[in-house]
Amino acid sequence: MGIASRPAVGGPQDLFYSTTTTEDLPRMVRGEGIYLWDDQGNRYIDAASGPFMTNLGQGNERVLRAMYEQGKQLSFTYVRNTRHDANRDLADRIARLAGPGFERVHFTSGGSEANEMAIKFLRQHAVATGEPERFRTITLMPSYHGATLGTIGMNGDQDAPAIYGPMVTFSEKIPAPLTCRADSAEAAARVSLAALEETIARVGAHTILALVVEPVGGQSSGANVPDPLFFREARRICTANGIRIVHDEIMSAVRSGRFLASHYEPDALPDLVVLAKGVGAGYAPLGVMLAPAAMVDELAELTGFNISHTFNANPISCAAGIAVVDEVVDRDLCGAAERLGAHFRGRLTDLMTRCPLVGDVRGRGMLLGIELVRDRATMERFGPEFDPADRLRLHAARHGLLLYARRQNAGRFGDWSTLAPPLISTAAELDELAERLGRALDDAAEELLV
Question: How confident is the model at residue 127 (pLDDT cuts 50, 70, 90)?
Answer without folding.
Answer: very high
